[in-house]
Amino acid sequence: MLTISNRGQKMPASPIRKLVPYAEAARKKGITVYHLNIGQPDIATPPAIMDAVRHSKITTLEYSHSAGNESYRQKLVTYYKKNNISVSANDIIVTTGGSEAILFGFFSCLNAGDEVIIPEPFYANYNGFACAAEVKVVPITSHIENGFALPPIAAFEKVITDKTKAIIICNPNNPTGYLYNREEMEELKNICIKHGLYLFSDEAYREFCYDGEYISAMHLSGMEEHVILMDTISKRYSACGARLGAFVTKNKAVYETAMKFAQARLSPPGLAQIMGEAAVDLPDNYFDTPKKEYLRRRNLMIERLNTMPGVFCPNPGGAFYAIASLPIDDCDKFCQWLLESFSFNNQTVMLAPATGFYGTKGLGKQEVRLAYVLNVDALNAAMDCLEEALKTYPGRVETNKKTKQSSVKV
Amino acid sequence: MLTISNRGQKMPASPIRKLVPYAEAARKKGITVYHLNIGQPDIATPPAIMDAVRHSKITTLEYSHSAGNESYRQKLVTYYKKNNISVSANDIIVTTGGSEAILFGFFSCLNAGDEVIIPEPFYANYNGFACAAEVKVVPITSHIENGFALPPIAAFEKVITDKTKAIIICNPNNPTGYLYNREEMEELKNICIKHGLYLFSDEAYREFCYDGEYISAMHLSGMEEHVILMDTISKRYSACGARLGAFVTKNKAVYETAMKFAQARLSPPGLAQIMGEAAVDLPDNYFDTPKKEYLRRRNLMIERLNTMPGVFCPNPGGAFYAIASLPIDDCDKFCQWLLESFSFNNQTVMLAPATGFYGTKGLGKQEVRLAYVLNVDALNAAMDCLEEALKTYPGRVETNKKTKQSSVKV
């Protein structure tokens, strides 16, 4: 009999993309939909890196080295050095997006049935890769009241078992925007060393830190063997469609193992590597403009959100996401209603229900994730829509901020 | 304690790439190495498809749809129609190379511990993906004496168990070049229907069939739910580095499941999709030239091989590979020796030991895979090297063809 695999059945559908048909239907009705639901920035990909592809002299687009072109890996060494991360080209495997780096990490370090601890809310696709690798995600809850800071070490200790093999962090964080401080990073180091755990560190948003210092897992001394950096150019250079990432570790056994998985899939995308190589040659001040732009958007969006009755949104230190709690009964219903039944001046807004970012069932029902990936005018219009929607949404639940905040505690 | 996963430990290193350091050392000594070891053609990528990327007006390289751009999938519908394969855009998921299509198939249809039957010798990376998905590969042996024809149905029946979920074929075949005929395809259909098995059909080389008719698994009527087509533009348009493939099935449950894995990794490469789309607009006679060129190379190489004393190479009907049996003790030793200790006119040849393509230990020790991916002059020079090498190789084993042929029987 033809059957679907267990992992295929368990595999979660994307919590964001399940709303896509409703957005398409809204557009067909002539409604403008502001997409704050996905981390797809409207910032231009640097023309210089697109031009590098346009001007390439390729006659046969060959497989690259399975670890990525040596020339690109050398460029990445330079890039990381600028970020005070000291690695060699032989510590780097160029991957198809950050996604493949996550998959290589899971495949190389984790057995079926092993457990990884992830502070929740977390990037929903970690669930997908865990499902593919038959690994169990053990969430520990971070809370909106303190801006989604790292849960206390006691929360980690409580869930560590013989099966625990790794902790995953995303820093600065998707979906919360939280930026881990030095003390938190040192705590993570201590617990990883004490319990012999890997630290998988997803640092896709390193260039976008607004308040406080960016600390890479690779900056932590004395835990070099524990750290696997999962990286991508998607957000850095607004090149999500390139599908170019990196798996970086100084742990030679892990590296050699990941290389075997890399060899099986032959090579990472070739044209994207030309882009990645050119990107490292962008002027050092390249990030000033997008960073300033994201900061401006963050300030606007957070201020607008916190002036809406019943809404609370902590100010995120990095990335381009925020999680807000709303005076609503159910974020999945609300986000669908926004697309299906609401419009304001023939416009509406698409948000990501926060439930999809929690591993613990029932959490996040009054929260949404907003990605400030649109320009200030669009963002203002989106906030107008949200403000109006909250006035008329039939499932509105009256809360004051204090009550609402305590209602999301576990 | 930091440990490497079981699958990571079991994961085979690439049987081809393990020789790479020896090839690099040879080059450093100033020796020209003819690469017949890997399916990287020297044929130019069609300039029109490179130009499509060069002239693209992209300002922000965004994520595409997780199934690939609708416009590209529509083009693929046209492409498949030209090959008498009738599918819709909603039967297609655009993947990162054929590799990802294989992985999606395994993840969606197979549990850890499930078994897939593959006629050996087979594409070595199936082992890698099976290892990642913790699936067991059950080889059934095809033989050089009859040109690696499909093993008899009895051989399949003998190994089918409750755990058997799929058969994988590669048609035309890598590494043997064998092209399955209609009777063989019908036999595969019957056994899949009888035992409720999926047929994973890797048709990366469909354009390169020289003798006999190309029968796609998608041409077999009455087994639509069973077939998963794994495809790639790598060989078709000599665009291996693009990393663009396709997962195609009319089985909706499988499609929906694979889409969840596709969503987790967000999208396939964006620039490559522009190439893929332009490729479908190439003139219908585009393939005439590369096909003629491969045929010329095949004829030359097969003739040269079979005139060498003790060498036997069946004439492959498609793709651009052949497996030859050589009068040698051990192909792994021989291929390394060619790079490490041999040169002729300051040249040598790199071949792929066939042992890496067999699932049954001990098979293929006197065989090598040759990819006729170089132009006729280079191919002739490579054959000169091989001919000379076989005269002086210290591990030469005297056989006549009859003896040698029977020695590879199981």
Which structural traits does this protein have?
homodimer; 410 residues; alpha/beta; Aspartate Aminotransferase, domain 1; Aspartate Aminotransferase, domain 2; 2 domains; seven-stranded mixed β-sheet; three-stranded antiparallel β-sheet; 14 helices; 12 strands; disordered C terminus
Q: Can you walk me through this structure?
A:
The structure is a homodimer. By secondary structure, chain A is α/β, with parallel strands linked by helices. Chain A has 2 domains: about 15-45 and about 285-405, Aspartate Aminotransferase, domain 1, CATH 3.90.1150.10; about 45-280, Aspartate Aminotransferase, domain 2 (3-Layer(aba) Sandwich). Chain A is about 40% helix and about 15% strand. Chain A has 14 helices and 12 strands. In chain A, helix 3 packs across helix 10. The model of chain A is unreliable at about 400-410 (pLDDT under 50). At the A-B interface, helix 1, helix 3, helix 5, helix 6 and helix 9 of A face helix 1, helix 3, helix 5, helix 6 and helix 9 of B.
